[in-house]
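[step 3/7] fold_predict: job queued, chain A
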Amino acid sequence: MASAIEQLAKNANWGAFSKATELKRRLLFVLGALLVYRLGTYIPVPGIDPTVWKEIYSQKGGGILDMFNMFSGGALQRMTIFALNIMPYISASIIMQLGTAMSPKLEALKKEGEFGRMKINQYTRYLTVLLASVQAYGLAVGLESMQGASGSAVVDPGLFFRASTVITIVGGTIFLMWLGEQITQRGIGNGISLIIFAGIVAELPRALVSTLELSSQGQFNFIELLFLFAMIVGVIVLIVFFERAQRRVLVQYPKRQQGNQVAQGSQNHIPLKLNTSGVIPPIFASSLLLLPLTIVGFTGAEGGDWTANIARWLQHGQPAYMLLYGGLIVFFAFFYTAIVFNPEENADMLRKHGGFVPGIRPGKSTADYLDHVLTRITAVGALYLVFICLLPEFMISQYSMPFYFGGTSLLIVVTVTMDTVAQIHSHLIAHQYEGLIKKTKLRGTGRQRRR
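[step 4/7] structure written:
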């Protein structure tokens, strides 16, 4: 993250920033939209007793609840209209990507250009509403069954409460989906990623205070505290290095005859990212592993029940949890990469445009070569994700660090920061080019007038 900012400072002319009115307008729009989002995380769902819910959450917290609360910026802990945040939309997008890879009809629709893209986005929105409705209803029913020391979490349970809760929470999710699309179109960066980023960053000061309180209570001494923060900085540096790493496959284009002229051959490359799957594997792996903990927490299973035994084995820091978590991350890294990048399609596209990899025959040989290279770098990327996610998990279990310092949260924060800084850099360069073009036209017009 620091290296990306330094690179931006070196390459960009910050004097042009004051003149880049379009960029400033986009940045102000992003800030305003994120402010609206943060205000919404404090608007409670009607019919909830906040005191009782806070007491219940402190008892049942942990597992997947903490992960969802992290993504929602604390909205789930406060049970507000953005309790589900943008997670149903992310789930719907992932399901549509999987469906596009497995369904010939959706794959053909994807290849229809702008029309196909708009149609798939429409299906994604419909699926988002369906998923949000199911999750909101389940949440409403679960809230009605929760009892704290001070009474029930719901003031007046019944059909009206369920209906109002579903409408409120689904409306909040749809609003965030629309807000994310507006940020993408009228702002800077990916709107959905920035909303999750804002939720995590907004809770980081509270997590920092919680860590310092643990230190003052004797949970760990000053040397261990410095080591924890040094580890966090080291993880951030490692994420920046690996997220920027890529394997460039050289592609050669031969000379071509165009009429009486001969076009010179050229070279290009196919950039293969070391971590093509991004943050998807840790999210999927965490959801699958922490689901038993949540089921036990809500059902109140007895100590001898088999679900309670499984939940005990899958606690943070347990060997079974670490092994399964790492294995699932590796599996989803390969699985999602196979969906995102198709070696056969890329080899066929190269062959149609006359390109070839030096030393490799076009067609199937090129596809096999790309698959071999992608498999090797994905293995390295999967091991990197396992290390990034398991090291903070170990620190959380040993030193009771807040969940916001976990590998998934740091991965999201760093990658979104890098992407946003890169887009700001691109806007500054585009503004400089526009200024140069205008100056060239003005000089050309002045010379013509003098003649």
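[step 5/7] annotate
The longest helix spans residues 407-450.
The radius of gyration is 26 Å.
exit 0
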